[in-house]
Amino acid sequence: MDVKSSSEKKWRLFRAWASRHPVWCAWQVTYRCNFRCHFCHYWSEPLASRPEPTPGQYAQAAAKLAGLGTLMVSLAGGEPLLRNDMCEVVEAVGRYHFPFLTTNGWFVTPTLAADLMRSGLWGASVSIDYATAARHDARRGMPGAWAQAWRAVEWLSAARIHKWQRVNVLAVLMDDNIDEIEPLLEMAQQRNAYFMVQCYGFRKTGSRRFEHNDGPVSPRLLDLHRRHRNFLSNPYYLGRFDRHLHGGVAGCRAGRSFFNIDSTGDIAICVEAKHAPIANLHRDPCPIILRRLRAAAQGNTCRDCWYNCRGEVECLYDAAALVTSLPTLLFDRGRPKKSESRLQTAKTLP
Fold first, then answer.
1. By residue range, what is the domain housing residue 58?
2. Are 137 and 186 within 8 A, CB to CB?
3. In DSSP terms, which residues pair with 1 in a beta bridge?
4. Is residue 1 part of a domain?
């Protein structure tokens, strides 16, 4: 199978968008996880004990998925790097798509970082929610998680071999970390990394106790976005955080613009609907998958989340937000420009 060039994949992605096919999918490569995060119960999923596809099966499935057009594919979980064949999975998905990896960073080494980048990884996001080790480690349920996550950012950043490869720090906005965002931005900048943020989703635990509740947040995030050039989250997305926190954002495009594939190949309109699959990638042809996704999306009035996989994708269907998104999607933005902020955080670094 020929590997599609970056330009060809971008053209195929544009055609998928123009034809109103999905442009993003979250592919949960495993639900196993070595962390016990307080604000996420995916590690207790029964799916964690189910058999997972081989790299060969990923290659076949990724080729079939290309029938929808090239997609931005988030390789997530669980902790994806619990699989010792993730480089082969990245290579298989990267033949036709843009593979992104979301990781807690625990298993990253300099060698693995280099192997992942050589395999064709388009980007990697390392989850870090606090600018202080004790708070991050406590919420993530793993001593040493914070220090290792920053090492992972450094190793992944140093391992990039193409201009288009990006490394992000990804934070979950919760009830107690809004004041940690700016220090995190600075610490990411010092490691040549971008920064993104997403809202905590109560459906991960069934509890709203971790939701931000300390006044308006969108103006603060938009101000940080103006002052920090490595803040990659789209202003359209950031500007709707308060709306999400006070009634939810209407018009969810799950099933139309994005969808979820779980670790068994089952497809649902989003990750929180994984227990109501509409098809299976390994068994069903693309026309049936597309038809069932569209049917399941009809009448969708859900307002429960404002994850990246929803909000950032919906930016592509708003004219002004699309203009902001295009440089990230179409051009080689591997390393962020220098931040304009004067905040100094060198003493806090691990």
1. 6-348
2. no
3. none
4. no
